[in-house]
Every structure is written in C-alpha cells, then in structure tokens.
Amino acid sequence: MNCLYQTKRISDLKEKMLSSKRYASIEQARIITRVYQENEKLSLPKKRALSLKAALEELEISVEDEELIVGNRTKGIRYGVVFPESGCSWINQEFETLPTRPQDQFLVKEEDIKEFREKIYPYWKGKSLEDAIKGTYGIEINGISKVVKINQKDHAQGHICPDSALWLKLGPQGLMEKAKKKLKNCKDEQKEFYECTILVLEGAVHFMQRYHDLIESEKIESLKEVGKICMKLSKRPPETFHEAVQSLWFLFVILHMESNASSFSPGRMDQYLYPYYQRDIEKGILTKQEALEILECLWLKFNQVVYLRNQNSAKYFAGFPIGFNIAIGGVDEKGNDTYNELSLLCLKAQEHLGLPQPNLSVRLNKNSSHELMQAAIKVVSLGSGMPQFFNDEAIIQPMIEDLGIEEKDARNYAIVGCVELTTHGNNLGWSDAAMFNLNKALELTLNHGKCLLTKQQIGLDLGSLETYQTYQDLENAFQKQIDYFIDKMMAAEKIVEKAHQDYLPTAFLSTVIDDCLEKGLDVTKGGAKYNLSGIQMIQVANLVDSLAAIKQLVYDDKMISQHDLLNALQEDFKGYEIIQIMLLNKVPKYGNDVKWVDELGNQWACYFREKMKRYTNYRGGPYHTGMYTVSAHVPMGENVGASPDGRNALKPLADGGMSPVYGRDLQGPTAALKSVSKLNNSCTTNGGLLNMKFLPEFFKTETGCLKFENFLRAFVDLKVPHIQFNVIRKEDLLDAKVHPENHQSLTIRVAGYTAYFVELAGKLQDEIIERTTYENI
C-alpha cells in the first residue's frame, strides 16, 4: 500500500470543495410546497412520496469535470437544505442570522428569504412536524429542557445503516419489481405503502438517468464513462467496483433528499464492496491505484453534504457532524477476525485526505491483525482524529443479552453517526432520541428542586444538601429526581415518535430496511426487524467527581459542612475559594483507577440503564442507553450551576461520555482505561465514547507505534467499548484560534466525530484545547 499516491484529480477536487461557499438552499422546499399544494386531497404518505419523486426529477444538478463519482442533493457544495415538512418556524425566525450565528454558519440570498416568507412559510405555518410537537407537548418539553434535551423535534430521524448490500444486489429497478409483486397480493391497508415505494423508486431511476443526460448534453468527454455507469445503474444492479461505489453514493444522496437528517451510515463497506473489488482485480480491469482513486472520490462526496440545524441544536451538534460512519475490520458471522485490501484502502484514503467525513471506524477484537492495527495507527498519528476504534469483545455480547439481537446480526454490527451502535440494514435505532443531564438532576436534588442559575423551581423539592442527614438520604432523593425526569422524558418521546409516523413516513428508506417490504409497513411505524430507542447519559465523570466529593468531604470526613458547601454552590464559590480548592484536590477523581470512585460511576449508570428497561417505545421496541455527548457537554454545562466537583457555573462538562473530566486524569492513559472499564457495557449498547489526546512525537518511532498497538490491545482486553484520539500540540490549536486563516484544513476530534477546528465556536475550541494531553503510555 505504500506505493499508492493521491492523484492530481483528487487534489484538484478537494481544493474546489474547500473553496466553495456554503449557502442555505430553498430549492427543494419550493418543490415540496408546490407538490403538496397540487395534491391537497391525497394522503400525507402519498404527498411525501410524490414530493421526493418530483425533487429527484427536478432539482438542479451539476458535475465537475474531474469527478469519478457524481451526485448531490443540491447543485452547490455543502449547502444546507430548508426542509418544510419537518420544520419551518425556526427557519422563519433565524433566516437572517444564519450567516452570523456563533456555530455552523450559512450564507443566504435575499431573494430566497423573500420567496420563503411570501410563498413557502405561509403554506407550512402550523403544518410541520415541528409545529405538531410544539402544539401537542411543547410546554412540557420546554419545562424539562434544563435536564432533558429531546431531539428529532424539527427534522426527520436519521442515524440509520441501510441495507446497502441489498441495494447493490437489486438496484432501484429490482426493488421496484419486488414492491410491484407485493402490491398485487397485499392487504388493503398495505396498498398505499407499496404504491409510495414504487413512486420514490421511479424517482430514483430518473435521478440516475438525469446525470447521464447532463453529461451527454454538455458533451463532457472526461465523464463519458461515468455517464454510462449512471444509465446502467438506472436499469440494473452494479457489476463492477466503480459501478458499485457510484450506486452506493446515489443511495445516500436519495436518503438525504427524502429525510434531510444526519447520520445515514454505509456501515461495513469493506465487507459488502469487497466482492466487486476482488472480481475486478482478478479480471485485470482494476488496479489498486484506480480503486483508491474511486474511493477518494467517494470520500470527497461524503464531505459535500452538510446539515442545516437550528441555532440551539448547532451548539449540541457543532461542526456539521453529518455522520457517514464507515466501519472496517471486526469479526465475521462465525466470530473470526476479518479484514481485506479494501479495509486498507479505506485507511489510505483517510491518510491522503484527512477530511471530517466519512467518520471512519475500525472494529478491533482479540485476534485483530498487526497489519490492520499498524495501518490504522499510522492514520491516527496524522492527527485527523480518525479512525476511532470499537471493541467487538465489549459490544457484541451485550447486544445479544441486553437487546435480544440475534448473534449473526450482533457480530455484523455497524456504527451510525458518531459512536451509536446498530445492526446492519434492519434497524430503526432512534439512537439520538434524547440527552439526559445527570448533573443538572443532582443540582436540583441539592437545592430543593431549584435551578442555581435562575432560582426557578423546575424539579421536585425533596430537600437540600442541608436536610439530608446521611449520604444514603442524598442518594435516595437523587434517585427520585432522576425518576421524575425520566417519566417526563418518556412521555415526550411518545409524542415525538407519533409525530414522525404522522408527518414523516419514509417510503424510500423503507425499501432498504429489512423487513419493511415484507411487512408492507413503513419504517417509522415499526416495519424494521429491530426497533430501538437510545438515550444518552450526560455526564458521568462530573457526576462521579461530585458525589465522591460530597461523600468523602461532607459525610465521611466532615471536612466541609453541608451548609457551607450548599452556600458555596449557590455563590459559585465566590468567597468560598478554599472549599473549591478542597473539592478539586482533596478527593480522588474518576479516571485514575481508584476503585471506590469508579464504582460510583458504574452504580449510577446502571441505575439509569435499569430504569430505561421499564419503558417501551412507540414502535413497540426497547429503550437502551449510551454515554456520548456529541458537543452537548458545552451547552449542557451552560445549564448547570456550580457543582460539587469544584467546577464553576456555566463551564463545560466532561467531553466524550465515558471520558474523565479534562485535567483530572493524572495517572496516565492506562489508568484512565481501567477506570472506564469499570462501567458495565450494558450501559453503552447505544454507544459509549472515550476521548484521549496524544502528542505527535509519540508516533515518530517504530517503538512508539508498537507501544500504541499494545495500548489498543489492552483496550480490547479491558473490554472498553470505544476509544478515539486527537494527535496534536496545544500550541497549534491556540494558534489556529488566533489565526484561523492559516489553519483552514485543520481537523479535530470533537466527540464521536471530526470537524474543522476553525468552524467551531470559541467555547468548544477552548474545551478541546484544555483536554488532557498524554506524552507516553
């Protein structure tokens, strides 16, 4: 693989992409609105299907002369799409501020704002998913928002790994034939579902043909072969590697056009694309260098789709984390380690490009090969924040035992978005359902249910730190506070899921999720084989450090009185600086392999997980839990007053999800791993996240890389589910903050995703800069 290089084609395309301006686009909104207006008497599923078909047939398209893979959901690169079916009200409020908001900015055109206000918004006002949820349960959702962030309120549900292998096997024509056969003999209540799938698949066929027609009409000689491929794919499944990669990209473009959501993930691409690669190599019609160039063209396309979120959500999901997660390596259905040349080519593509997408993941296990690990470590050392690593030894068994996933499906797990775990092609995992701020719940427990920041009563008044006679009394009250907000959260989740069924049925997605076509049932209504919902716990590290401090300094050693600590928290430590120093320095912290401290974390994570087992989602499936933050640790920290771990009010919570609070893991990376290993893996079946930061110098020698491989093998043996790395100097990040113009291509691992550092808001940049950096293992 060392002889492979990045071609001029790729460097030219990358430069074009990075220099493109990013706009908000109303083109698809215009088409959707017109179709709805023309078909008022039809059912909503029919209008949804017809509007996607119209978009596929009418949206303006473009190609670049150098491309080997074509297609996008807008003519422009990295455009944010206004999508009226899911939400218009927030756009109406924020349109003018999109270019200047703190996070994830988009340029706007005055004529687009005018058209939106005069023609699009008046039609959709009160009719979207966003409006339905606000009207039904908006007051209740706002009432718990300091503790619980309910997601998916103004956009469709993504976080899905479609059955890409099925798409490649049948193509849109094959899937259409299957739907037509089902339609002939279906029940009356299934008829509309099949009719809708046929409509959207017809649109997919036309979409592919349009790229052929554009290339032919503009006489682009360099794209003649690509045009032929597009026409072939509209008629039959792919036969070559190039055709398969182009077909795969069409699948993901169309999924984004239908739902305008994040985190549709290709999954184990090195497994299902390998037969096409191997066949072409053996026939002599493809070389490794040509295959790499095709892959790198695909990598560039993954970076051309971003997601337009409202200003508040952009703080929680900062840096455009669109979440095209590709997993390489891992065990096969028999439990044997598997990787191939395509796995290594995926790593080589990331090595060459160093871009935020796709979110490249490597699955490790006890038999992972030295070759794959060293190839991955080489890419890690370059500092793009990729790949991240997942541990088969920690993930597969809990999926089977806790979620009832079949063994073959669990062994074939994929990752969606950041770190969320899913089965491949048969699961609506709803993995981003909500985020639960455990630290805010503790704050309310300590202060009569009142917010330290606003003094408002938002939780149960169970007493305060002054009234709990024992540490056990405090724990009992904390349990009740958690239970109260969980009940509120679950009621909100039912409202949100029902709204998605009513307002955003997804006929196209349903064609590539098993068993929707067999059941004649839309994926939003439970058509998938597995129907999960995932809730994130935020943030166990701060919680553990807070409880450890209270237990030791207040109740056990009585070094701080209950009255003084509560006053210190209420005053944000002003006048109580000595108490803050004691909280920070007199108690062991999570992340240093201190058994009693780490077990506190496991205790509360397991308590939360067990509570989730009592609930069933609106599709009849189970709830489960994850421990990851995206970038929510910053805005969620802004909701929390001073905390007993010594943290000041409004400051960020710990990054990651399983990570220690930055600066407190003083015993090195192995001790941090051991602390994280105390967390029960049943608590992270929805995904867990451990962030670490190393200096680039560590990887300069062969010895350093071998030591790092041993560290990763310890990660596997300790059964920690996930780990990822930033490899960068603090000085470089500080310079990038001051001189962003000199660091436009600098990428950094935020949480479970990579983003351009200079595109992040200042508070998030500061938090990343302050994370602990390891010099050695």
UniProtKB/TrEMBL annotation:
PROSITE patterns: GLY_RADICAL_1 (PS00850), GLY_RADICAL_2 (PS51149), PFL (PS51554). The keyword Cytoplasm does not apply. The keyword S-adenosyl-L-methionine does not apply. Residues 656-777 form the Glycine radical domain. Keywords: Lyase, Organic radical. The modification Glycine radical is found at G752. Residues 8-648 form the PFL domain. Pfam families: Gly_radical, PFL-like. NCBIfam families: PFL2-3 (TIGR01774). This is Formate C-acetyltransferase/glycerol dehydratase family glycyl radical enzyme. The lineage of its organism: Bacteria, Bacillati, Bacillota, Erysipelotrichia, Erysipelotrichales.
